[in-house]
Amino acid sequence: MRRILMVVATVLAIAVVPLGRPAVASPAAAASLVEVTDFGANPTNLRMYLYVPDRLAARPPVMVASHYCGGSGPAFHNGRRYASLADRYGYIVIYPSVTRSSKCWDVASPQALRRGGGSDPVGIMSMVGYVKQRYPVDPTRIFAVGESSGAMMTNVLLGLYPDVIAAGASIAGVPFACFATANGSEWNADCAQGRITKTPQQWGDLVRGAYPGYTGPRPRMQIWHGTNDDVLRYPNFGEQVKQWTNVHGLGQRPVFTDSPKAGYTRTRYGGTGGAAPVEAISLQGRGHGLPDEAAETIRFFGLDATPPTNVNPSVR
């Protein structure tokens, strides 16, 4: 596990401006990253960082951005363009942050893989609830994005809370429940090495079983992976495609294929346009650390259409 963390940290390390522990966000400083405490149920002692731009959309969307293994909310904030794009388009960004020693998300325990079961997903949903209570957000436009361990958490959030999360983007991740373990370990080597394969139906059943009885709409999913990923190997890309196409009742044959950039192969399932139920981008020759394609994720979420109009209110 230590070797894996060193690899991930080396590949994904992002320059971070040192931050002290800010005060509770009351009131929030406009256009700055603020830590929020006492945001609700938080069984695994996560930390919550919040970015609210100077100007908000009329009913601002919300994005949950989950960091990679060994990272933090502030590091992810500083290293990716989600906040600068929020300045342009007026959405709010939540950066949850792990405090356990590994700085990896719990995507393996039975508690984390069951709706309301406890662990990290419960804390993240408390953060979402906190923001919904304090800002006039659009509850139908809550999104999740993550890299590596954070991409795994994105899969988990979409599986557990399809009634909350409208769409997600998994950047170098694995399918929902692929990392499940029964011995308390955070790491599943078989999944990481791409040795766990299932039928689309089996993968889909794992998602459906996480929230029994749910019959509502399912979140759209955007999936990114490098063909030379040696941390979470490339077969996990195809297994995620299997899972989320099945969850949406779709077949495995894409209805649209193009190459938006050299070395990129993009496939869409269930629709040819930018709001397809599943969009998958394979990056030829890339390893675990992928380029910053935040703008493409913002496009997939549909956050790039409406300019902000309202001045950022203070957090009560």
UniProtKB/TrEMBL annotation:
The entry's keywords: Hydrolase, Signal
Keyword presence, Methyltransferase: no
KW Transmembrane (keyword) present: no
Pfam families associated with the record: Esterase_PHB (PF10503)
InterPro entries: AB_hydrolase_fold, Esterase_phb, Plant_Biomass_Hydrol_Est
Entry-linked NCBIfam families: esterase_phb
Protein name per Swiss-Prot or TrEMBL: Esterase
Species whose genome carries this gene: Streptomyces djakartensis
